[in-house]
Write a structure and sequence with these properties.
The chain is α+β, with helices and mostly antiparallel strands. Helices cover 50% and strands 6% of the residues. Helix 7 packs parallel to helix 12 and helix 34 packs across helix 36. The chain is flat, with a radius of gyration of 47 Å.
Length: 1905
């Protein structure tokens, strides 16, 4: 205790003079802590407490480092570098010691953790963290889980996805308020509170004393560090500096929270204890420091525009607000209290100058709101002030994480939520001022989503803290700062204000966090009910919504194009969707049952009030202002959606919530205006407003917006139509669409409001709108499932869709709790009912297909609904696409061959409340319009289209389907004349009006019109028909004949009705002077005078239809009533033959329905048909009309011609593609195959694809093959085991490159170079396994001079190509295949070629001599003149290209740099690489024989010529030519061993035979003779066979060897001993036994050699397998040099077939007895002599280096085909391992991790951390691993990226989800599974080197990947 006491004496309160803890004390913190703990544990601990306080006071406020830092950098610098930091470290150390009470801090942490009742996970994460969301387990839509909890829980079969957190979040595992307990992970399932022991008091006792001081210290730092930013300079820098200094303190607190529940509850106590706070922070003590900090705190409060409730008493308000922008002022001038009087005019000017200037902001007097919400803050605890500073400092991430880490503590959660709500207004103000509003928004939501997703908590805060009032007020306040005067309707006198969409607040979506919180709390039923019951809130809310009513007004530009296209419409649509529609959907989701009727009534009531106010504010009477439209009517939409809900779910009576007629008339105007404007926009009438207006029209119907925009609008119009007078409604529609003047019987008319070119599309628009209005049932009686089905069918009919795009395209209620959750049960079941899944197809070379859904046949047959398609198409072309697909279906299924019309679809029955809608179909106005249009179409008036006719017929059919009860046949209901519509039609029922004949019509026409001449049409039918009618209804007819029908004016009709309604509804409306009535629509005087003419018509709708049938079918009397033959038709009317077809079918269907509805119609139809109808009189066509008609026809013909040309072109192209690309076509297509030519042609002829001339390749004008040279390491990737390597997905699995082909060859070469002469080593092996040059061609040829000029033109072409011309890259001018060089074709004649191939009868000895002589000739270019020709130049340049293709390290292997041997080795290795790769492309063997892909477009023949020419420049010294050693016995054997100092040559048995073959052949003059070739092969085969015997002898055991030696020796003297492998083997063994090759075998090696019993068969198989690779390469070579076909065979007979094909087998050889490989041997010299000579070399080497002797022997080839790494089934396993893996180079976790699929290396994509000499890591790796080709899997995107040289491309993904779709960037986060076919395709492209040809989208990577 002594030490402790001493320490206490030093550190106790007795020594006030000690300013700093003495050094001794510092060393002994632990002892002090222990002492204090003991003192505090006593019952009377006051002394201990004081002692501790004093110590803390000194330790914590020792240096005030922050003040120093904040006052200026110099001070910190003067403090000697670590000044402030050191003191802080010290303070933290003290705290840790004190908390632990003398023990070790780590042990203390562990002890506290033991008491953690971890029921909740609560892990907090920041942005970009990968988390999971499971909709099956979530109660709240915002639920999220960390990866660990997700994988520990069981979510199989659930609807979950992985996502990247945008704003940060926290894990909800264990919180049953937010998710179902079944989804908890194993750790959080146990309710562990029961079995956790109680926390011992003394454990946390010190914490309770120390922490308040610590937190207070932190708050003081924050107070002092905060300097109010000056008005103009953003002060993020200073704030960040303070935060950096505080990092350790906050981290310390964060660590405390992670100690678990016990520590959290202590912290909660500290943070919420009001007494502590008061004692420490009041600033009333004598401590000057504390006083100063309190003052700073008050200043900060005040500068935020907040008042501290008591500070009026303490300070008065004389101080100015520190010169800062007081937000309260900036936003709302009318605020009551002292702040209201300031007027910051200068600020307004600043805002105005940002280009939004022109319109002055409007400010409201905000006396309505509760000022205290906005302006008063009082802090009572640490927690409150901490949050205040967190907001002030704009939510530093560390602070946010600390505050959130505390949330698992329930008591804290409640306190914190209340504090958060209390600061809500302040948050909004800070957010608006912030420069980093995006980051800040994310941080705010990060916090609020944790608090408000919990229903219980939200309800509690709503009740106790007025949460709803605060939120609505704050939102209102926020929007008020950007209001402007509305210019809608009455510009001068409008009192309405709207938000200005150009303000940053809306443009940057700054309001997003507040709105998202609001939507979040409205999703809780208890909270939403409070909202719907509170009338005051509803009024405020409607007030808020009305700010958006009519925003972003568009005015049509009539003269010139608008200068600047504003893009504010994005902001407007986003604002309406987020701030108005989503809260609306949230509220609607709680109005689902009858009991909630009251809520609906409330909303509807206040909505109507707000609408009435709005109409008043904009001075609206009955005419909308022309040429302006706004797409934003949120009040209308609220009203509509609540009405719909009321009728659908709450059984409310519709009429009880509808206003009077006058209000309905007003309500329909603006939505109708939008529909008309849509038609105008699509008719290009708004083209001068720029593209953005099209953008608005598209957004309005787009899938995310349509059910909050166009659907409510159409529904509202349907409601209005069902309650208003139908004639008024119909005439309003045509007037709005500006086509009234077009609806005249006259052939000419004047339209005062519309240009002629727009008339047709506007008329189509109007009729289409009526069809949609009358047939859409979305809100009029369809159930949710029917709606979902209809939406899905419409989307699938437009195009096949992927699952995700369907999910995206189908509008779901935006509120997540609305029932149709994406991926929910109903979605999947409906999808499987209407669509078939098309699995992804793989066209190699095509684009990667996705899995698609396509409509089932019966859907096309019965459910295809063109109306729904038109409603939902964003692009007009989609409607066409749907019709084309429908046509294709009908053709394919044989239902209809021609061009069908959109089918008529039966509708769901109407809900009874909306029955009135059908009156539109039975009103005279519509019938007159239909009659007029039918007549005009029949008479071929201009501006009418098939579409118009289609819609007219559709409307007639709708009318027949929805006619009222069967009318009586006696027509008793004919009314008196006063009801008649100017004597057009007698009644209003379509069925009876259809047969009504109209004889004469009076029309107003321009004087120039042909009608004025009054040619009376000679019609014989009128009388008889008249008499028929007169016998039935004399009264009516007389009246009709006496007076002709009147001119019918829609406008007048509408005015009349409007006046009636107004008069009926209110008397005072009579006093309304109707301003500017219809003078805008009347004809201007300048137009030609209109006169009245009388037209004789004498038609009824029925007769027009029948004539139309004749016209459409082009035959007279084509219509014959079907029921005359088959009376059955009238009984069962649903006849399939009428359901699909064109206009003729439609007319027939309508006539049948008309006949069904009334006997009278039936009779009249028969009557009309009986009359032989004369032809329609030829119309007198005026010159002008003729011109337009001709123009149309000419256009049509031109179109047809163009189609024909295109089709022809396409078929040509197709046939070319087939010949050029077809893999299996016979070889003779391509002129390049020299050997295919007939013998009489003297020379090979080539076509130049640039100049088109054909001719031979000559010395002066050589022709070349278009080739692509690329370096390749594919060969080097072969491994010797069959099992492909797997991609590592754990730390244990690693891939080592030791067993790759490249590594093995490398080791061999360096071993040889160690012991033998360098030049000889370089002849004994091949290189090019890594970085070998592969040459491929598309088979097209061109003149080399043509190519040069082609390259020149490419160089001058400025268009950005995907390739670099400077590097010699181009695309083949014919097939566009990528290429980078031209390989000259050697001029040679075929005849000579055929001569060469004839077998000569020379014996092998003579041939060997000839070969040697030919090789010995000096190598010159084999050209008659020695001077350089064009050909030789080209040969040289292409050789240069070949060398430059690969990196230097893959070319230079010799010890003396630049030695000629190096080039020699490189050249023959190029040939080797190309042969080996072709073998791999053929599958590793030649069993398939004949032409394979590689053979067809091979350029090996030309390549050999080029290589041979260059090889012959380097003659091998004849001394060293291996040919001698192979074919002669050398006498003076000892001379070699004589010169010891010089390294020996490589023994011939260590030579690679294939390399020798290529050297021998390339050393010969070209073209080579066939018998020389065979001779070389025979000689080399003897060497190869000997090598096989040696390898075999080494493989077997000592006993086997001696046995074989013995048996073979006995047969040595038989006649064909040289052809018996037993004899030869025994001889080899006996020869090699003389050396040390077999010695040195320790016992341990014997154990390794597997004790195989070698039978003669297994020996034979071994020898054959050893020789096969050589035979394959040789046969390929022979095939290319001499053009001989390869025979196909079975695998087991490959050896014998190839050897006979190569001429190794004597022709007389009989194949009866088992084949023996030795029979192919043909020894040039006595076998035993030469073998003994070869073995002697080896023995000489093993004398010195016995251990290497065996390693260098050639082993049998064991390479399997190359493969990419095998990938795991599920992508998640890759993702979880790699996305957090650290890079081995920079030891950081990369931002974009990638992994190489060839070797498994983990790299940082684009990471600057691993950059070397300006190359990023992926590019570098692609050079080292693939010689410039890299295949990388991007971990965070699941996509594969290909790097090829200096270019790269995105290849696609090999992982697809359950629906066969890629998920690029893991946006959807659904589980992904490997698609084996795709991976196969990728591997195939890698092996065949076709990335460049197949993938089209390449770009340069500038070494930055």
């Amino acid at each position: 205790m002594a030490a402790a006491a001493a320490a206490a004496a030093v550190g106790g309160s007795q020594s006030p003079q000690a300013e700093l803890p003495a050094p001794g004390l510092a060393l002994d913190k632990a002892a002090t802590a222990a002492h204090l703990k003991a003192a505090l544990s006593r019952p009377d601990n006051r002394a201990g407490a004081e002692e501790l306080q004093a110590l803390l006071e000194r330790v914590l406020s020792a240096e005030r480092p922050l003040a120093a830092a904040a006052d200026g950098e110099e001070a910190a610098a003067a403090g000697g570098g670590g000044g402030p930091g050191a003191a802080e470290e010290e303070a933290l150390e003290w705290c840790k010691c004190l908390l632990a009470g003398g023990g070790g801090y780590d042990e203390f942490c562990a002890a506290v953790r033991a008491y953690d009742p971890a029921a909740l996970c609560g892990l907090v994460w920041t942005a970009n963290f990968v988390a999971y969301r499971c909709r099956t387990c979530g109660i709240s839509p915002c639920m999220s889980l960390c990866a660990e909890c997700f994988h520990q829980g069981d979510h199989t079969g659930h609807d979950f996805n992985m996502f990247r957190s945008q704003a940060g979040g926290a894990c909800d595992c264990g919180d049953s308020n937010v998710m179902r307990e079944s989804g908890f992970c194993k750790r959080h399932q146990i309710k562990s509170s029961s079995n956790i022991p109680c926390v011992p008091k003394d454990l946390l006792m010190m914490s309770e004393f120390v922490l308040p001081r610590f937190i207070f210290c932190l708050i003081q730092y924050l107070r002092e560090g905060y300097n109010e930013p000056a008005a103009d300079v953003p002060s993020e820098k200073d704030l960040n500096k303070v935060l950096q200094l505080l990092e350790p303190q906050i981290s310390f607190l964060e660590d405390l929270t992670k100690m678990g529940g016990a520590m959290r509850s202590v912290l909660t106590q500290v943070l919420t204890n009001q007494q502590n706070y008061k004692d420490l922070t009041s600033g009333l003590g004598e401590n000057a420091c504390a006083k100063k900090s309190h003052e700073k705190y008050l200043i900060a409060l005040k500068s935020s525009g907040l008042t501290y409730p008591e500070d009026k008493l303490v300070y008065g308000i004389q101080e100015p607000s520190a010169g800062t922008s007081t937000l309260a002022v900036q936003g709302f001038a009318g605020a009551t209290g002292t702040l209201g009087q300031l007027d910051s005019s200068d600020e307004e000017d600043q805002d105005g100058s940002q280009g939004l200037g022109k319109r002055k902001r409007v400010k409201l007097s905000s006396n309505t709101k509760d000022q205290s919400i906005m302006d008063v803050l009082k802090h009572k605890s640490f927690l409150e002030e901490l949050l205040f500073w967190t907001i002030k400092y704009e939510f530093p991430q560390k602070m946010v994480t600390f505050l959130l880490n505390m949330l698992p503590d329930q008591e804290y959660k409640v306190a914190f939520t209340k504090t958060f709500v209390q600061h809500y207004a302040f948050i909004m103000k800070t957010l608006k001022k912030s420069h980093e509003s995006d980051t800040m928004s994310n941080r705010i939501v990060h916090i609020s989503v944790q608090l408000f997703s919990n229903e219980e908590l939200a309800r509690q805060v709503t009740e106790e803290c007025q949460l709803l009032d605060i939120m609505v007020t704050v939102l209102l306040y926020m929007m008020e700062s950007c209001l402007i005067k509305s210019e809608l309707q009455d510009e001068e006198n409008s009192l309405h204000v709207v938000v200005n969409c150009g303000e940053a607040l809306l443009k940057n979506n700054t309001y997003w966090p507040l709105v998202s919180d609001f939507i979040n709390i409205l999703s809780h039923q208890s909270v939403a009910k409070r909202f719907l019951e509170d009338h005051g809130l509803l009024v405020t809310w409607m007030n808020f919504v009305s700010f958006f009513q009519g925003m972003n007004l568009n005015k049509r530009e009539l003269n010139e194009h608008v200068e600047f296209e504003s893009q504010t419409y994005y902001a407007a649509f986003a604002a309406e969707l987020e701030a108005c529609a989503q809260p609306m959907w949230g509220l609607l989701s709680h109005c689902k049952v009858r009991e909630t009727q009251e809520y609906t009534r409330n909303v509807v009531r206040y909505c109507l009030e707000a609408l009435q106010d709005w109409f008043d504010a904009i001075n609206f009477v009955d005419e909308p202002a022309p040429n302006q439209v706004t797409f934003h009517l949120p009040l209308h939409r609220y009203y509509a959606m609540f009405l719909s809900k009321a009728v659908k779910c709450q059984e409310l009576d519709l009429d009880s919530v509808l206003p009077d007629q006058e209000m309905l008339m007003k309500l329909m105007i603006h939505p109708l205006q939008i529909q008309a404007s849509l038609a105008e926009i699509h008719s290009n009438m708004w083209v001068r407003n720029g593209l953005q207006i099209k953008g608005q029209a598209m957004t309005y119907v787009q899938s995310h917006f349509c059910n909050s925009m166009i659907d409510p609008d159409i529904y509202l119009l349907q409601v209005c139509a069902s309650r208003l007078d139908p004639d008024y409604f119909i005439s309003s529609v045509f007037e709005r669409f500006k086509v009234v003047d077009l609806l005249t019987m006259a052939s000419q008319h004047q339209n005062t409001v519309l240009d002629a070119e727009h008339e047709r599309s506007m008329l189509e628009g109007a009729l289409t709108f009526l069809v949609i209005l009358l047939s859409l049932r979305l809100h009029l009686g369809m159930s949710d499932d029917e709606i979902l089905r209809a939406e899905m069918v419409a989307q699938l009919c437009m195009n096949d869709r992927t699952h995700s795009s369907l999910l995206d395209l189908i509008p779901e209620n935006p509120n997540p709790k609305s029932g149709i959750i994406p991926g929910s049960y109903s979605f999947e079941s409906v999808l499987s009912a209407v669509a078939d899944f098309k699995a992804p197809v793989f066209e190699p070379g095509g684009s990667m297909q996705q899995g698609m859904y396509t409509p089932k046949a019966e859907v096309w047959d019965q459910e295809f609904d063109p109306v729904m398609v038109i409603l939902r198409t964003v692009y007009r072309r989609d409607v066409q696409s749907a019709m084309d697909r429908y046509t294709a279906f009908l053709k394919q299924s044989g239902k209809f061959p021609g061009n069908p019309w959109p089918p008529y679809k039966k509708r769901t029955p109407l809900h009874p409340s909306y029955k009135g809608l059908m009156r539109l179909l039975h009103c005279k106005t519509l019938h007159i319009v239909l009659f007029t249009l039918l007549y005009k179409i029949l008479m071929d008036h201009q501006n009418l289209s098939e579409h118009v006719l289609c819609m007219v017929l559709y409307l007639i059919e709708l009318g027949l389907e929805n006619s009222a009860e069967e009318e009586s046949d006696e027509e008793a209901s004919v009314c008196g004349p006063e009801r008649c519509h100017d004597s057009w039609f007698p009644g209003s029922n379509l069925v009876s009006n259809m047969r009504h004949f109209i004889n004469y019509v009076r029309v107003r026409v321009p004087e120039t019109a042909p009608e004025v001449k009054r040619d009376s049409p000679a019609s014989t039918s009128s009388d008889s028909l008249g008499s028929l009618q007169s016998s039935r209804r004399p009264k009516v007819l007389q009246r009709e004949n006496s007076g002709t029908a009147q001119v019918f004016s829609l406008v007048a009709e509408r005015r009349k009705k409007f006046q009636e309604i107004i008069n009926r509804s209110s008397s005072e409306a009579n006093q309304v002077v109707r301003p500017k009535t219809s003078n805008k629509w009347s004809a201007p005087g300048s137009a030609p005078q209109l006169t009245t003419a009388i037209l004789e018509i004498k038609e009824s709708i029925l007769s027009l239809l029948i004539k139309l049938h004749h016209k459409l079918s082009g035959k007279q009397n084509s219509y014959y009533p079907p029921w005359l033959d088959d009376i059955e038709i009238l009984i069962q009317p649903e006849i399939p033959k009428y359901s699909h077809g064109d206009g003729i079918t439609a007319v027939e269907r309508i006539l049948l329905k008309a006949a069904l509805q009334s006997r009278m119609n039936k009779r009249i139809i028969e009557e009309i048909c009986r009359k032989v109808t004369p032809p329609v009189p030829p119309k007198k066509v005026t010159a002008a009309e003729k011109k337009t008609l001709d123009k149309e026809e000419r256009r049509q013909k031109a179109r047809e011609r163009q189609q024909k040309l295109l089709a022809e072109f396409a078929s040509r192209q197709k046939s070319f593609m087939e010949t050029a690309m077809d893999v299996d076509s016979p070889e003779n297509d391509i002129p390049m195959e020299i050997t295919a030519a007939e013998p009489q042609i003297s020379e090979a002829v080539y076509d130049c694809v640039i100049c088109g001339q054909s001719g031979p390749s000559s010395e002066d004008r050589p022709t070349g093959l278009v080739v692509l040279l690329q370096a390749s390491s594919v060969l080097g990737q072969c491994r010797d085991n069959i099992e492909p390597k797997k991609l590592p997905i754990t730390e244990e699995e690693q891939i080592y490159p030791w067993d790759t082909c490249a590594a093995v060859h490398d080791v061999r070469l360096s071993l040889l170079q160690r012991y033998f002469k360098d030049s000889s080593c370089l002849l004994a092996v091949s290189i090019g396994w890594e970085g070998g040059v592969y040459v491929q061609t598309c088979g097209h040829t061109l003149h080399i001079d043509c190519h040069k000029s082609y390259m020149e033109s490419l160089r001058n072409d400025q268009v950005l190509q995907g390739f670099s011309v400077d590097k010699g890259e181009f695309t083949c001018p014919l097939c566009r295949q990528f290429a980078n060089s031209v390989l000259p074709c050697y001029p040679g004649s075929n005849v000579e070629n055929n001569l060469w191939q004839r077998p000569s009868n020379k014996n092998i000895q003579d041939l060997i001599k000839e070969v040697e002589e030919l090789q010995g000739r000096p190598g010159a270019f084999p050209v008659s003149i020695s001077s350089e020709t064009n050909l030789s130049k080209e040969m040289e340049s292409v050789m240069k290209d070949i060398k430059n293709t690969t990196q230097k390290k893959y070319r230079d292997y010799s010890k003396t740099p630049g030695s000629p041997d190096n080039d020699f080795l490189f050249m023959y290795s190029v040939a080797r690489t190309n042969l080996e790769l072709e073998l791999i492309h053929r599958g590793g063997n030649l069993c398939s024989g004949g032409a394979s892909t590689a053979g067809k477009r091979s350029c090996l023949n030309q390549l050999f010529h080029v290589l041979a020419l260059h090889m012959r420049l380097y003659s091998i010294d004849s001394e060293y030519n291996p040919w001698r050693k192979l074919t002669q016995l050398v006498e003076e054997v000892n001379s070699q061993l004589g010169n010891e100092e010089q390294q020996p040559e490589v023994p011939i048995l260590y030579h690679d035979v294939t390399s020798l073959l290529l050297i021998q052949i390339l050393m010969m003059p070209q073209p080579l003779r066939k018998d020389h070739f065979t001779c070389i092969v025979k000689v080399l085969f003897t060497l190869l066979y000997t090598q096989a015997l040696v390898a075999l002898s080494v493989k077997c055991s000592e006993e086997d060897r001696s046995a074989w030696k013995h048996t073979g020796a006995l047969k040595k003297n038989t006649c064909d001993a040289e052809k018996s492998h037993e004899v030869l083997l025994s001889f080899v063994i006996s020869e090699l036994s003389k050396g040390k090759l077999y010695h040195e075998e320790g016992t341990q090696e014997c154990a390794m050699v597997s004790p195989i019993a070698w039978s003669p068969e297994s020996m034979e198989k071994y020898l054959q397998d050893f020789c096969l690779p050589f035979l394959r390469i040789t046969s390929l070579l022979q095939h290319h040099l001499f053009g001989e076909d390869l025979p196909s065979c079975q695998e087991e007979e490959e050896f014998s077939v190839l050897s006979s094909c190569l001429g190794l087998l004597p022709t007389f050889y009989q194949t009866e007895h088992p084949f023996i490989s030795a029979s192919c041997l043909d020894w040039p010299v006595p076998a035993f002599d030469i073998i003994s000579q070869w073995c002697f070399e080896i023995n000489g080497f093993t004398e010195r280096h016995a251990e290497q002797g065996k390693a260098l022997l050639i082993q049998e080839s064991r390479w399997k085909l190359p493969h990419l790494l095998q990938l795991p089934e599920n992508y998640n396993t890759i993702f979880q391992y790699y996305h957090r893996k650290t890079c081995s180079v920079c030891t950081k976790v990369p931002k974009d991790p990638a992994v190489c699929l060839v070797c498994g290396t983990f790299v940082c994509l684009k990471g600057l951390c691993c950059k070397q000499q300006s190359y990023c890591e992926c590019v570098l790796h692609s050079q080292n691993c693939g010689a410039g080709t890299g295949i990388f899997l991007l971990i965070n995107a699941s996509v594969i990226i290909i790097i090829r040289g200096h270019r790269f491309c995105l290849w696609g993904s090999v992982y697809l989800d359950a629906h066969g779709e890629e998920d690029r960037d893991l946006r959807r986060g659904k589980p992904l599974y490997i698609c084996k076919e795709r991976y196969k395709v990728l591997e195939q492209q890698w092996i065949s080197h076709t990335f460049d040809h197949i993938n089209k989208r390449w770009g340069p990577h500038y070494n930055g990947l």
